[in-house]
Specification:
Layout: E1 2-9, H1 16-30, E2 34-40, E3 48-49, H2 58-64, H3 74-81, E4 86-89, H4 94-105, E5 110-113, H5 118-124, H6 131-144, E6 151-154, H7 157-165, E7 171-174, E8 196-201, H8 210-219, E9 226-231, H9 237-247, E10 251-254, H10 258-267, E11 270-273, H11 282-289, E12 294-298, E13 314-316, H12 320-331, H13 334-347, H14 353-374
Parallel strand pairs: 1-2, 1-4, 2-3, 4-5, 5-6, 6-7, 8-9, 8-11, 9-10, 11-12, 12-13
Helix pairs in contact: 5-6, 8-9, 8-12
Length: 387
């Protein structure tokens, strides 16, 4: 197949959706498909790089979260769409909407992914306390974008359930974003760390809740024997550094390349994922695949609890006392933690990138086949039709 992937940007390696798009593109290419990426920062042989679009006020805010919006350049994008079997969309923003309209004009089958959880928007806009806001965003995304697609990729059963509950009538394909096969347990027994090493990977942002982890370490009975590593960048870094200093928590902030990240995870003692909001959390899955036992926030708006094999790997969301208890439990049980590390590593196999790519191929093939049969009888509303 010749597949075009449309995404506002592809040059931010700290954005989970961008990383997923890159991983899927590389994986599809390795399976013999031609993939064309249409995005800011695209630089592959068949890719179509586009310019950034300035949005008053919004651009300044989004820049803090390392998000950019692409400018629709019809002629260049139309040329990139020539000979394409299917166009797949990552984000639901204006650029993607215009590209969807163009794909419809050119008679090209399309699918979309749901990667932008409304709760991510509300937390970063400090509007999470307004309960109807998230429902409105689900409604807005559905009306403006997703209702124009027959098939939608959902990275978890959790988000598929959320879409169904918010009136999405699409055929929902639950397909994990898949973890890189390079993430595996250490091949030899790892040496004992000088301090008990707890790791969390994720953007330093409000909804990721790293502050709860810092507070929990401070509350631990073994606080003086714990070193915490927070891997990621984001707007909360300075406030988290101040909190750790105030509470006397031994913490390192870092951002690592894949090879170094794998080594770090392989050498760790425990992985904590404190995020309240997650569509899936590949970062947690990568840690699990490396043989780390996870402790995960049991949040109602997060899919990450799906990775927990029992209650010992769950703590009450946004509750540092609950998390401190789980940290102490695993700290005091070396043998059980090592045993469960192997069990967790094996549990990750079903979320492998290879399995995800196979499912994505089936979704693409289903859409291409249906598109050829529909010929004007598309049951959903074409994107070009005005409200």
């Amino acid at each position: 197949m010749v597949i075009a992937i449309v995404n506002d940007l592809i040059d931010n390696k700290t954005n989970g959706s961008v990383i997923t798009a890159i991983r899927f593109a590389e994986g599809l290419r390795s399976r013999g498909h031609e993939v064309r990426i249409i995005a800011i920062g695209a630089e592959g042989e068949h890719d179509c790089p586009v310019k950034e679009r300035y949005v008053p006020l919004v651009t300044e805010v989004s820049a803090k979260n390392q998000v950019k919006f692409a400018k629709f350049e019809k002629k260049r994008i139309a040329k990139a769409f020539e000979g394409v079997d299917l166009v797949h969309f990552i984000f639901p923003f204006k650029f993607e909407k215009k590209c969807k309209e163009l794909a419809d004009e050119m008679g090209i089958p399309t699918t979309a992914a749901f990667h932008v959880q409304p709760e991510n928007i509300s937390y970063n806009a400090h509007l999470n306390w307004i309960k109807p806001f998230n429902s409105f965003v689900y409604f807005y995304f559905r009306q403006k974008f997703y209702r124009h697609f027959r098939r939608v990729h959902c990275p978890s059963a959790f988000i598929a359930g959320q879409l169904a509950a918010h009136g999405y009538k699409n055929e929902l394909y639950v397909i994990s974003n898949g973890y890189d096969p390079a993430f595996v347990p250490a091949q030899a027994d790892k040496p004992k760390n000088e301090k008990f090493e707890i790791i969390m990977t994720g953007r330093l942002a409000p909804e990721k809740n790293q502050q709860v982890l810092i507070k929990a370490v401070a509350l631990s009975k073994h606080a003086g024997s714990i070193h915490l590593t927070l891997l990621g960048n984001g707007p909360k870094k300075k406030s988290l550094q101040k909190l750790a200093a105030k509470l006397g928590v031994d913490v390192t902030f870092d951002f690592l390349k894949k090879e170094d990240l794998i080594k770090k995870l392989q050498s760790g003692d425990l992985y904590v994922h404190a995020a309240t909001v997650e569509i899936e959390a590949i970062a947690a899955l990568e840690a699990i695949a490396c043989g780390l036992v996870p402790v995960i926030a049991d949040s109602k708006v997060s899919a990450t609890p799906q990775f927990a094999l029992d209650e010992r790997s769950l703590f009450k969301d946004n509750d540092e006392c609950s998390l401190a208890e789980k940290i102490d439990y695993w700290y005091e049980r070396d043998d059980e933690r090592r045993r469960m590390g192997g069990v967790y590593a094996r549990s990750a196999y079903k979320y492998s990138l290879e399995k995800s790519l196979e499912k994505a191929e089936r979704m693409f093939a289903d859409e291409i086949m249906d598109h050829s049969e529909r010929s004007g009888e598309f049951a959903l509303v074409p994107a070009a039709q005005k409200n």
